[in-house]
Amino acid sequence: MAPPHPFDPLSPAEIEAVVSLVKKAHGEGLLFHVVTAQEPRKAAMTAWLAAPAVAPRPARVAEVVVISNPSGTVYDGLVSLDESKILSWEQLEGEQPIILMEELQHVEEVVRKDPAVIEQCVLSGIAREDMHKVYCDPWTIGYDERFGNKVRLQQALMYYRPDIDNTQYQYPLDFCPIYDGNKDAIVAIDIPKQRRPLQLFAPLDYHHIAQYKRGGFRKDLKPINITQPEGVSFGIDGNIVSWQNFKFHLGFNYREGVVFNNITFNDQGNERDLFYRMSLVEMVVPYGNPEHPHQRKHAFDLGEYGAGYMANSLSLGCDCKGSISYIDAAMPTRVGGVRTIKNAICIHEEDDGILFKHTDFRDDSTIVTRARKLIVQSIFTAANYEYAVQWIFHQDGTIEPNIRLTGILNTYVLLPGEDTHGWGTQVYPGVNAHNHQHLFCMRINPNLDGGHQNSVFLSDACASEEPVGSAGNYYGNGFYAKRTRLETTGEGATDYDWTTMRTWDMVNESKIHPYSGKAASYKLVSREVPQLLPKEGSLVWKRAAFARHTMHVTKYADDQLYPAGRHVPQTSGEPSKGLPEWIGDGKDSIVNTDIVLWHTFGLTHFPAPEDYPVMPAEPMMLLLRPRHFFLSNPVMDVPPSYSITPSQVLAKKDVYDATDKMSKLVVSSSGSCCSKL
Amino acid sequence: MAPPHPFDPLSPAEIEAVVSLVKKAHGEGLLFHVVTAQEPRKAAMTAWLAAPAVAPRPARVAEVVVISNPSGTVYDGLVSLDESKILSWEQLEGEQPIILMEELQHVEEVVRKDPAVIEQCVLSGIAREDMHKVYCDPWTIGYDERFGNKVRLQQALMYYRPDIDNTQYQYPLDFCPIYDGNKDAIVAIDIPKQRRPLQLFAPLDYHHIAQYKRGGFRKDLKPINITQPEGVSFGIDGNIVSWQNFKFHLGFNYREGVVFNNITFNDQGNERDLFYRMSLVEMVVPYGNPEHPHQRKHAFDLGEYGAGYMANSLSLGCDCKGSISYIDAAMPTRVGGVRTIKNAICIHEEDDGILFKHTDFRDDSTIVTRARKLIVQSIFTAANYEYAVQWIFHQDGTIEPNIRLTGILNTYVLLPGEDTHGWGTQVYPGVNAHNHQHLFCMRINPNLDGGHQNSVFLSDACASEEPVGSAGNYYGNGFYAKRTRLETTGEGATDYDWTTMRTWDMVNESKIHPYSGKAASYKLVSREVPQLLPKEGSLVWKRAAFARHTMHVTKYADDQLYPAGRHVPQTSGEPSKGLPEWIGDGKDSIVNTDIVLWHTFGLTHFPAPEDYPVMPAEPMMLLLRPRHFFLSNPVMDVPPSYSITPSQVLAKKDVYDATDKMSKLVVSSSGSCCSKL
Fold it and tell me: Is the fold of B12-92 the same as that of B101-213?
């Protein structure tokens, strides 16, 4: 069997091999929190990519993070798969590894049996014998200064289901048990001063059984069938995907979910580098209710739980339509087995409307060409929320990260007549959905046109500095793109500016366009860029330093992947982990070197009843667009639907007609008026 | 035959009737620039809509604007179709009506024969006998203080085509003839101080013949077929379109193109008003090169040329895919005939990915429901540019205006080695594409929940005012939506603010949501909102007053439709027409009354070679989203693809499975690795 591509995720056999080596060396009583492929060292990897037949294959190394049971000691190690040996093994102090679904699931059992929790449930109005109707969403505690980070804690957000099929989020409870994973016990309960007993309003559920009771489903939606009788236009070879001049390695890990490596674009036979690596690397969801203990609700869904660990198994014709390829993901289980997430990634094409069109008004010559897009999708469920993360590739070289937020609001109980004080919204009687932000961090390591020598420029649309009436701007209409090169990591910390519709350009300054005289670049166009609303010096601000600015730029270093730190649960933010450590005094040059962009974008969500009991997807997108990169429009060789030149209009012949013969004309129901069909 | 709906465009027979009445009264020598239905007076119309069987049918009136030939006198009149008589007839002074395609097309003929133009062509390097290879895009002159607005002028942007099938925009000429429509002659030529002769580099054309010569089309795109074997989910009755609880009147006129009237939403049997009228009403495309005479390039494409007059005739399976309905548009010709734009509007549905999804991590209960969208599209060609304007309706009540910009850049000649000074980009040898903005103005007249009593609030995401460590914000995470009611038309002039991710909420303050306690609203989420870059006091700033702010709000008044004035060509901006006139001293109340929102959004475009010779479509979108309007999520009755409750997971039965059986699994080409399919 061929060796794995160095970027490949660990196979099930590799996970098993790593676990076996670790158990042999360190005993059976280990809980496996991370068993994942270490990102190949870049120097070795780029040498290999440049000459795979000649250069040594980069070392195949696994990262392993375990908790020793029952001591709770945490170890962080590296295991060589090539040499079948442990390369390093370090005991951590005051750092908590990523929390596992298995840990989360377990807390509900503990909570149901805990006498103090039962007492609180009774106080809330739940019968003692109904504890099987009590549920909790355990979250890592975030950080709670009363406990620090040497104990492994979860906070249990409490709910009730009168019936097993009821949505628990409509029956939140007002207290919050704290679970100690080392003791396997509830060690405290946060009880608010103002008590809010269970509010038992009629359920509003979203499953089909509930909808049947409300009168069933609408019957006026006719099916849309999407078929590709000749197959798809993309190819998959191992984890290498190629489509419409793009080629990339598609990886997947426990934490980031989908990872793109070595994205290239075949520019008329010349395979040009675009991005060495691109992925979502972190996110934070701060909630805006300042009352204790809601400040602890600020999930780092990637660093604390893992987009890979939480990935949905996607289903044919359900999460996507058309002709779809899937890739599975292999994850370790806590005891050291392998769990396969079937269909963790889906890959498919969609028609994308008009790619370009022009009609000459004087001679009726026309061209219209339809666009195609490739969608690589993974969906993860973070307790109540769903994140459908799509990476969309466009034929013109544009890459569009696109996220749809759906799922269910996090909720808290509200008394009749109680004021939310503006920190939340009563979306249903007794249900208070708190304000929150979803702030994602995308990490981009460009290697535009090879050489790993890129720079970043701010591009700001600015009016001419010269006044109206002056010789240089007499009519006052002059404007230009002001470009400012970011020189150091300190300067790299930059914010959006709507007044100039700021974009960030990643540039290879050595590749000058022969026509425009400007350097080859990709422009980041991103408009959903809320500021971090937790204040400077706040708990969230300290822990989520990446979110303090729209953009940070660092010089590439191996292992600098996670901007809120490698081990995120229970970090205090004193000092802030990750990005601030790497930026340090801010004096590192980021000019013409191997750079990494850390872009924070997202949404601020003030809930409304329309979001309840399940949220219609809220879309957001950003664009990475080639500028001065291609000699000309790179999609002129996409077959048009219709094309006719001026001379052909005159000659009435030789029209290029590839219009879609499957499309149908629909005659309107009345058809009476002369101006209708 | 039933009378037309009062919102209906004029039928061909009505246009003919109006022309005939006018000719009878005012003679044959008239040129018809506008023959269009007057928007019904709102008081009469709302009375009729409320009780169509009882209330009097609103008067059917046509607006007519003519130029008397050869005097050039302009008349603006109203004609009653009910009474077959002219209601008013006013002579205009210093106002120029909209320019017609017929006028534009004619200038090219004049230019080719004009001795002074021929002389300039020869100076540029064109043989005297090659004048048939000389082309021009005539634009209205905008405003030129040397000529004022009592003469009717066009500026001819000059190009050359070595071959009839070459794209002229790659061979721009450096001089600009000015055509006087009253004299039917070239009356001046603007000649730059620095001469730039024709730059005859090899052509780069976009039609299929040129692509054949470059090696033909890519062959790796497999067809995607989209079919609706059971038909479509929308209905069309006359101009009334209904789909998924939405209902609206779909109008079309010479100027705005598509117009929506009386948009309602059937909320569980209750037909609730949303918007009385919505459309694009104006746009301006200022170019950023301050050198004379480029300041005159700032097209008001709607007010000066008309999105309706310039509308493409759309083709089946070419501009759209699937099952498509079309609506034709009837326009007057200049001499008073009727021109039918076949398929001026297309209407079709598309699958829209996931509408909502949730999986419970503890019990594997799941629901996933797919979304559908309805797209109403019109595409217009403004000389070089194409604007594909889509109005997308979503099942959850969201309305998404979505515009794709494509077509060809406006270009000017550049000498070898010449510096663009940052005002443009050399996109191809000898071709300078100037910086420009596309600023659209959308007019929204909400009537949320009836009564025509709405207000507008700014909604700003703000951190709690209380400091970190204070009792009210101890952990510093408090944040809320600060809402500020705009009280007067003066206050209504507001700008975007990225630091608070500002939105504008249209609100019916009398309709309080029973759960949230907040008033029924639609939120405008719009992020592509560049500032007008021509400076305060500049020519463009004076003429395009609507673009000075992201938002203006006025009190509704009949006939206040066009924010840069009713007759836009050759306005001087002294004083500014339209919005500033209506806002006046800014003291009119806009609280709980019939209000109109004027929203400016768009793009600033710094050209790059990728945009040449034809531009891959650049997308932009905004959202109008219901908030506190529906009792709960309004799409729970959309049939899911898949739904299973917790009890069904346990019982392993009764799953709701309507997954798409047309979708196909694609097995990857290698299929070798265990973690792949």
Answer: yes
